[in-house]
Amino acid sequence: MDDLRVAGTTADVRRSADPGTSGAAAAKRVWVERLQLTDFRNYASLSLDVGPGPVVLTGANGSGKTNLLEAISLLAPGQGLRRAPYPELARLGATGWAVAGRLNLPAGPVDIGTGLLDSDNDGRAARNMGRIVRINGATQSGSGALAEHGEMLWLTPSMDGLFTGPASDRRRFLDRLIACFDSGYRPLLGQFERAMQQRNRLLADDVRAGARFEGFERIMAEAGVAIAAARATAVAELVAAIGVRRAGGRGDAFPWAEVALVGTLEAALALQPAIDVEDDYFAALGRERERDRAAGRTLDGPHRSDLAVGHGPKEMPAKVCSTGEQKALLIGLVLAQADLVSQRSDGAAPILLLDEITAHLDPSRRAALFEEIVALGSQAWMSGTDREVFAGLGDRAQMRRVDDGRIAALA
Questions:
Q1: On the chain, which terminus has fewer CB atoms closer than 10 Å, C or N?
Q2: What's the rounded Cα separation, in Å, for the pair 332 and 349?
Q3: Residue 261 CB partners (closer than 8 Å, separation 6+)
């Protein structure tokens, strides 16, 4: 496990022809060519080779489709599409796991390995060490280094409640998009979070000396305003991408969304220079310590902002739309994000991980989604229980059957 390699596979599925992708088009893409797993979820060992086109995974519930998508998501920064604690990713009976992948980028291939070691060199449990990340054999300081090696967006059934769930889910949805553009954004979020935790700890400990707070509050002000500014820029670019989709007549099956940031810092940035907003936020943190002490947490900042989403054609909040409308609206939003990433990446579309994507979609919307994916040029990994719902892709997709941690190619 310590070299993050996979050997002795129980399934080895070689790359099939991908008739929908020319060599020139493939060169512009970001795509997973090879995926290898060891002791990951229900996979004891797996080696899977595919081409740059869409990949469809079908199989019964619990067969391992989502697990495979989760493994791919760990080739990107962050905790993966389920945000599960790393020890929980190990197969039953194992204490460590490994995921290795070869990604093809416009600049050339890159080999990525990541995993959780069974134990350290002294034999002690290493379950709390965090995951190891290696790029082309070189160990990295964290998963943030993966931001330089391709972008991924995903849509899972748990996100179907994005518009009705807590604001933290919508912030995370937006932050994942920003991280595709800016490798320094995730560290900025971490910097703010750590400083806020220290401030909250001082409040909980009934510390009264202002000097003890000021260093943390200055960090919060600098990082917090930078986060709010990055979000405001991303939302403005997303609105523009949605506008392009509308102008091109691409919003019929998936309605266009109205999106706006809601937050004190974002509102202030629309009226004042960032340096003034930073000073005002720093002053507010000092002024509101007693209020925050009573609340047991910091009440103002980018951690309280929200992404307001509306159904554009119907002029109504997304949260009151029907389940089917919300799913269509969410898919349209993800497609607009993918367009934006592609524009920012000189035409290289992001990898899309679409788990149970056809749920709540009628046949016309399914067909429209498949055409969107093919036109985008993304290696979209799609999962579902019924192979027939993907028939509209024809020979443009690589079909795989997942059965209890094993994968077989389908004609």
A1: C
A2: 16
A3: 228, 231, 232, 235, 305, 306, 307, 308
Residue 162 lies in a domain: no
* Full DSSP string of 118-138: SB-TTS-B-TTS--EEEETTE
Q: 3-state DSSP call for residue 291?
A: helix
Q: Residue 317: helix, strand or coil by DSSP? A: strand
Q: 109 and 84 share a domain?
A: yes
User: Quick one: what percent of the chain has pLDDT higher than 70?
Assistant: 91
In terms of residue numbers, what domain contains 101?
12-151+345-409
Report the pLDDT averaged over residues 328-337.
Answer: 94
- Tell me what pLDDT residue 327 has: 92
123-144 pLDDT, tens digit each:
454 445 678 999 999 999 888 8
Q: Which residues of 155-180 are buried (b: 16+ CB within 10 A; e: fewer)?
A: bbeebbebbeeeeebbbbbbbbbbbb
Whether residue 370 is contained in a domain is answered as: yes
Is the torsion defined by CA of 293, 299, 300, 301 positive or negative?
Answer: positive
Same domain (yes/no): 192, 242: yes
What's 185's domain CATH number? 1.20.1050.90
* Residue 337 domain-assigned (yes or no): no
Does 35 score more than 70 pLDDT? yes
Q: Parallel, antiparallel, or unpaired for β 43-49 and 31-40?
A: antiparallel
Instruction: For residue range 4-29, list pLDDT tens digits in order.
Output: 443 333 334 444 434 444 444 455 78
Question: What separation in angstroms does the CA of 330 have from each of 1, 287, 400?
Answer: 38, 40, 26
Q: What is the mean pLDDT of residues 313-317?
A: 95
Question: pTM above the 0.85 mark?
Answer: yes
Examine the fold and report which residue of 311, 329, 357 is the final residue of a domain before the chain moves on.
311
Structure tokens belonging to residue 263: 């937050």
Nearest by Cα to 166 from 303, 361, 327: 303
Q: Quick check: 410 and 387 in contact, CB under 8 A?
A: yes
Are 305 and 172 contacting, i.e. CB atoms less than 8 angstroms apart?
no
Confidence of residue 182 (pLDDT cuts 50, 70, 90): confident
> Counting every residue, how long is the chain?
411
pLDDT value of residue 129: 61
Share of the chain above pLDDT 90, in %: 78
Distance, in Å, from the CA atom of 229 to the CA atom of 250, rounded to the nearest integer, reads 29
Residues pairing with 32 in the sheet: 103
Annotate 22-47 with b (16+ C-beta within 10 A) or e (fewer). Answer: eeeebebbbbbbbbbbbbbbbbbbbb
Average pLDDT over all residues of the chain: 89
